Amino acid sequence: xxxxxxxxxxxxxxxxxxxxxxIVRARMQSRMGPPLMQPFYDFFKLMDKRPIMIHSFHxxxxxxxxxxxxxxxxxxxxxxxxxxxxxxxxxxxxxxVIGASSVRSSYSVLxxxxxxxxxxxxxxxxxxxxxxxxxxxGSFDIxxxxxxxxxxxxxLPLVFIAFLLTIxxxxxxxxxxxxxxxxxxxxxxxxxxxxxFYEALYTGKWIEYIxxxxxxxxxxxxxxxxxxxxxxxAFLFINLLDNSTARLDFRRMVKFAWIxxxxxAALNVILLALI
Amino acid sequence: MGNxxxxxxxxxxIALPEPVSFLFDTKNEIITNVKVDVGYVHRGIxxxxxxxxxxxxxxxxxxxxxxFCSITHAGGYHHGIExxxxxxxxxxxxxxxxxxxxxxxxxxxxxxxxxxxxxxxxENLFMQGVKDREIVMDLLENITGNRxxxxxxxxxxxxxxxxxxxxxxxxxxxxxxxxxxxKVYDFxxxxxxxxxxTKGISYISLDxxxxxxxxxxxxxxxxxxxxxxxxxxxxPYDEVGFEIQTRTEGDVWAxxxxxxxxxxxxxxxxxxxxxxxxxxxxxxxxxxxPKGETFVRVEAPRGECFYYLKGNxxxxxxxxRVRVPTYSNIPILKELFVGExxxxxxxIVLSFDPCMSCTAR
Amino acid sequence: MINPNVEIFETTLEKVVEDxxxxxxxxxxxxxxxxGVDEGGKLRIDWxxxxxxxxxxxxxxxxxxxxxxxxxxxIANIIPSAWMAEWELRDMFDVEVENTQKGIFIKDPNIVAxxxxxx
Amino acid sequence: xxxxxxFRKKSPxxxxxxxxxxxxxxxxxxxxxxxxxxxxxxxxxxxGNPKQADILLVTGPVTKNCRDVLRRxxxxxxxxxxxxxxxxxxxxxxxxxxxxxVENGVDNIIPxxxxxxxxxPNPRALIDGIVEAIKIWEKKSKDKEYMKNHSKExxxxxxxxxx
Lengths: 275, 361, 119, 163
Prior knowledge:
By secondary structure, chain C is an alpha/beta fold. Chain C has helices at 16-23, 83-93; strands spanning 6-10, 29-38, 43-51, 58-66, 71-72, 96-97.
């Protein structure tokens, strides 16, 4: 029941997470920052703008991104296979990529290509993480993970660290905000969306927050307090990282993911399988 | 990624405060060719200075060439026109001019450095840099009455004096600023990701810097010790002990470091200037009309600024020629892009601290 | 009057490139800019240089009485950064300079040679 | 959409374009983003993207080379939108009035709603101008101006007949 409510209200919850994040970021930069409700103000403003679309397919792909993102979250929360949730997330990002590369703007096309680089970097790791959950818990089902009596974080410390360092890639945060890169390609894939269509992307991002932090929560197993601590830790950590790093090149991101993060997670999985 | 994508950078772009257009041909995000258009800001100031304005008012026009180095333009013009009129500003006025010029340099350098951090994706460093800069802006507002366009120069002196209390206030605030600047300096110097983004990018060798006649912090970052403050007599820099700051790395990182070093040196210069502030008038009367011609070099925050003035004994000058620092740095900037990544293009452009409104006038 | 430390080399349009080539040493001198002055129907062009080592010292190669329809030689192959000043000279005075194009600053075809007094 | 208009005044996204000013105003815009003035308190962000912007912040006299870019940016912004002209140069050219390459002010090219005086305007003046712009923006949105077509006169002024 709680997961149904969580799924339905995921955009709203994600909006609040984003609002908190904007305040935290502003305070870290010694600013006041916007009010907590700011993302919703943005949301309602965008709804009232005149809809301008490049072509209908482009707009459709923007909405597809939002729907697939929500669907991935629903699959994740409503107790289906974790692996399927990961694949639905891939579909969501692919919709974004296809939409972005269907227009002529070079920023949009560059952003789409960079978004693919993001996928190459983090998707193998997501799959590895799900597999490691299977090895620990013995099931792909979220319910079993949440009822697992041990502490997955103790079995999977390296996977957790690798996942922590992947969050900046998933949520477009500073060392790896390559696809969004506001000062380079002005938002990348989202540049050509406007008004209500941009809204779909904007809220899709909020859902992604919930999607990502759910995974962080799973590392607590049945100990929900541990999960909550891990989520708060992950939230603060990525904000700190966001505020203390410069943006790196996409080549460096892919290298980092494949040379450091994936071997690290794989090592954890191998050790787990041996023991 | 992508066989050949043409990426426009400007004339409207979030990383650029002013209109300049670069058109990059990229292949896998590596730049293979570049087209530059610097003419967006051309307003025709040189023409207006010799037709519409009398020599007493030209200064107001010339300071509005650029908001960053407005005081340098006023300095260059007034140094030249005072030569032509054969007046000499009193010592106290010269010192006040020096103080304002150096304060202007500090705020310009801090903003330039912060902007490089911003386009490198390091938003927090931008915020910290600009936060410190507000101290200087307060000082400037305190002394001159405005934050950006000061117009404190007048022929034969300055408009406003620095009172004893203000001098004390400046000293106190500058010492505070120095601590803060040293803190941020540490970040520019040692931050790992910022180093990854800036070290070794767009390297200019000493030989290239000389061949292309690079000026300002860009030249000094390559080890070329050129500075109009040392090479031309226009303000009492010798008396306050000016030294040229150089680095030898010649990349984006070194340019930031040079600017940061200059900020600290400028703070020292101002402190010394305030300690030795001579007593006396701040303005002398002049008479006559400008006649003859003169060449002036002054140091703007971005480098050497050249002025040529020619008067013919009437109220209106015959020729005003302004050659600004970015003007002589654009040729090498154009050469630097080829072979660099597109994601490094913004730090490269901003590390030159380009001033298009100066360049096109 | 003129600054006491400015050294002026009077030369002619045919010889100026040769003169600069023989004199210029990029390790010692610093190219500043090219400046044109309209002296009542005739153009005066200065090639201005400064010294890295000597304080206040400047050198000027000066060609006077250039009519507006002569071709002005380019020094861009001696000093690679000189092209900008040459392009600007062309825009501002509507004179022909070797290897230049119109339109670095002035793109409107209605505006011709703003710094010339007869236009 | 009366309900949504309630939230309108809290999220102005800014597009900034310099049309040939002296940078002074642009420095102040950067200062406004920075900690001391922090315009994000009001929800304002510097988006740099005409398609997602609500307020067009123009600085400087419009030079002839910048004119077309400015016009295009204005047309690319979806309605409702507000134009703010910042600085003395924007008001009829300022010190650059009647120079040969200058178009004398922003309102010769696009319709302007708010003027911010000063050379250069203080960041406080800029914030005040943005607040003023938000009021006009709200009114425009209530009048559903974005549902109407541009008047013939304005289309002529913008020169988009043959675009």
